[in-house]
Amino acid sequence: MVLSINNISKSYGNIRALKGVTFHVPEGSVYGVLGPNGSGKTTLLGILLDVLKADGGTYHWFDNVAPHDARKRIGSLLETPNFYHYLSGYDNLEITAGIRNTDSAGRERVLRQVGLWERRNSKFQTYSLGMKQRLAIGAALLGSPEVLLLDEPTNGLDPAGIAEIRALIKLLSSQGITIIIASHLLDEIEKVCTHVAILKHGDLLLHGHVNEVLLNEDTVEVKAENMPLLLQTLQQMPGITAIKETDSLLMLSCGDVAGTAAINSYCASRGIVLSHLLLRRKSLETRFMELTN
Q1: pLDDT > 70: what percent of the chain?
Q2: How far apart are CA 281 and CA 189, in angstroms?
Q3: DSSP H or E run through 150
Q4: Strand 203-209 with 195-200, pairing
Q5: pLDDT the model gives residue 80
Q6: Per-residue pLDDT tens for 27-66?
Q7: Distances from the Cα of 9 to the Cαs of 40, 202, 226, 291, in angstroms?
Q8: In 3D, which of 68, 29, 33, 35 has the Cα closest to residue 49?
Q9: Helix/strand/coil (H, E, C) string of 222-279?
Q10: Do residues 75 and 149 make contact, with C-beta atoms less than 8 angstroms apart?
Q11: What is the pLDDT of residue 259?
Q12: What are the pLDDT digits (tens) for 107-143?
């Protein structure tokens, strides 16, 4: 386990920013910490980086490595970095490495990682928004961290820039880097995250593998020639928690054991041939809105 968070609490005066938050981040995961503004995401990242002190609870990096040693293994982007507009990306990274007391020899490696090697000598002011953000992530990658913490990495980007950052996150994850992302852009996070924790006003509403979080919200559409018989049959099938009838379809709410293959097999064994079978999974955004409203 890369990170264990246990009952973390934090208040600012009368405002309780975090209320006993507990979850664990597996090695190699892309973990999304999701919530609207004011939910406590940035406060949590600040505590994990030892920028802020929690009022209560504990957290442990890398099976309880000392915080100072753990910090050397973590790269972070908590706010927009101050790059010099008149300097190249290559020279900006040299300055960043000096400020962080990190070896600047890794500049070529990180520029290749973030896809900016061919533009290394271009001035920062000539970069697109997506390229600027990729350079910022490249700066966080100096020192070859095992974990990358990103706060709102696609905030303010246009669709092309968002797509660039999404592709970069997937690439870095494929290289074995564990990534923790705080964001309110739920649709984008859904496309890259393996795990998710949802916060609202400091409360942890839900956490786990993305597929597990969404599992109970699956809906399966089915249709057969004999609809009354299909309805009667599926009412007896274990794992189907609710059935809604429409003009031409049955909409099934399914539990863990009632996937599309199980439904098809169950019907076939009872002489029913399905002419329509479709899984409709709610997006994380829909699930989030239902939880937080």
Answers
A1: 94
A2: 16
A3: strand 147-151
A4: antiparallel
A5: 73
A6: 999 999 998 888 999 999 999 999 999 999 999 999 888 8
A7: 10, 8, 56, 21
A8: 68
A9: EEECCHHHHHHHHCCCCCEEEEEECCCCEEEEECCCCCHHHHHHHHHCCCCCEEEEEE
A10: yes
A11: 81
A12: 999 999 999 999 999 999 999 999 999 999 999 999 9
Stretch 246-266: mean pLDDT: 84
Residues with Cβ < 8 Å from 105, sequence gap 6 or more? none
DSSP annotation of 36 reads: -
The three state secondary structure string of 67-90 is HHHHHCCEEEECCCCCCCCCCEHH
Q: What is the C-alpha to C-alpha distance for residues 218 and 198, in angstroms, rounded to an integer?
A: 19
Q: Which residues have a Cβ under 8 Å from the Cβ of 206 and sit 6 or more positions away?
A: 196, 197, 198, 213, 291
Per-residue model confidence (pLDDT) at position 165: 92
Q: Is 144 helix (H, G, I), strand (E, B) or coil?
A: coil
- Please check whether residue 210 is in contact with residue 225, taking contact to mean a CB–CB distance below 8 angstroms: no
Query: Which residue in this structure is represented by tokens 């041939």?
Result: 273
Counting beta carbons within 10 angstroms of the beta carbon of residue 163, is it exposed (0 to 12), middle (13 to 18) or buried (19 or more)?
middle
**Which residue has 């994990």 as its token pair?**
48
Which residue do the tokens 């597996």 mark? 26
Phi first, then psi, for residue 43 (nearest 5°) are: -60, -45
- β-pairing, 74-77 vs 147-151, is parallel
Across-strand partners of 150?
77, 181
Distance CA 63, CA 121 (A): 41
DSSP β-ladder status, 30-34 and 195-200: parallel
| pTM tops 0.70, yes or no | yes
Question: Does the pLDDT of residue 90 top 60, yes or no?
Answer: yes
Integer Rg of the chain from CA: 23
Q: How many residues does the chain have?
A: 293
